[in-house]
Amino acid sequence: MSGHGEKLGRKQELAIAALLRSPTIAGAAEQAGISEATLFRWLQRPDFEEAYRRARQAAVDQAISQLQQATGQAVATLQDVQADTEAPASSRVTAAKTVLEMALKLRESEELEARLSALEEQLQRMAPAAKGGGRR
Asked: Would the pTM of this model clear 0.90, i.e. be above it?
């Protein structure tokens, strides 16, 4: 078994991959060729848990990247449906509504990000004063 700070073994790496693919611990253990008890024990280890967390984050990052790559085509599709006079009115209305809702959410997100950045800058300006504020 690996000590703290050492690389995970091959079986542990297989177990992490199986955890990403399987909806259950039992299924992941079976895919990795280990017992459920072993997998549960590994999940309690900080090094294994951290490696699993990083693997999950990488999988989410990859999915987000794929979604971002598809957004241009999705908007074009909505625009095509919205402009298609042959399409049912309900489809055109739904497409238009979706475009407007997405634009509003994007604007809200940008405004929230700007407000958060302003607050962070304000806190950074206040931090030096707080450190030396009580000394004379």
From this structure: no
Which whole-number Å values give the CA distances from 42 to 57, 97, 119, 130, in the listed order? 19, 48, 41, 44
Query: Three-state SS across the chain?
Result: CCCCCCCCCHHHHHHHHHHHHCCCHHHHHHHHCCCHHHHHHHHCCHHHHHHHHHHHHHHHHHHHHHHHHHHHHHHHHHHHHHHCCCCCHHHHHHHHHHHHHHHHHHHHHHHHHHHHHHHHHHHHHHHHHHHHCCCC
Q: What digits encode the pLDDT tens for the residues 85-127? A: 998 999 988 988 888 888 888 889 999 999 999 999 999 999 8
Please report, for residues 17, 45, 59, 61, the alpha-carbon distance to residue 56 in angstroms, rounded to integers and kept in the order given: 9, 16, 5, 9
In order of start, what are the domains of the chain with their CATH numbers? 1-73 (1.10.10)
